[in-house]
Amino acid sequence: KPMTVIFEYGVPLSTCAQIKNWSQQWQQLSSLDFVSADPTSTFNADLEALTDVVALANANPAKPNGSAINQLRTNNFIEPFTLDWTMREWQITGAGVAPSHLTAVTTKQTPANSKWNTSDLASYLNTFEADIVAGTHTVPLSFPGATPFLSGQSAVPSPAFFWDAPGIANNEGRHHFSLNTCNGCHGGEAGAQLPTVGGLPLDPVTGMGATGPSSNAPSFVHIAERNAMSQSHLSRFLTGTGSALSDPVSGVPRVFDDLTRRAADLDFAANMPCLMLSLTPALATRSH
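The chain above was modelled as a monomer; its predicted structure follows.
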């Protein structure tokens, strides 16, 4: 059965100089050839040194087990009864039922599926519309009041799934909210479908139709499975290429280019003067 696992680390660097230096080293990788093209290249060694900052044992002694990992996310298609893609989030906790072990926690920024098409969802979006559009909202554990709201697991019931409800005042707020949920981003809001021609995945380098089977071009993921030494196919949400995606409610064309956004975030961290870094608001809250 298909399943993907994402390890998301917190970088244990705190000073401006440390953050800028680490970011600049990531940028410098782009100037190096892959070892497959140049056996003398230091690309592999330099990349390993950067990832060792977070991946080595005891990378952050202040956290449980000394691990720098913030959370582990799983995306799977193994539910025997629903046949839905299901996403879960896990953290290493220092207390609770299984201290210092991976423990299932809530799926951040994503309401329970039962909140779809409800007045509770519309009320939340209308109440926090400004924060949602600005990308600074945090989906609460409960809303309204003590009513459970946040998801324990996030299912994608269909590739076209998106968050909506009657009574939402501003579709831009709805769009930003849905885009930043796990199942909206991997469903119909971001168009996770990988580009194809005649049912076959596009070649990631040439952009032409591929000649092999299309089994490695699922609609749920933004990065397709691949064979060893092959380049993965990426979704239009990541690359910004191909035709625009239609908003599932208004039909407004939307073009995403998340890799460019991430590159801009990295460039900001690498080059912004330290005084400006300290005065700049935190980057928008995102589920991943």
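Residues 1-105 form one domain.
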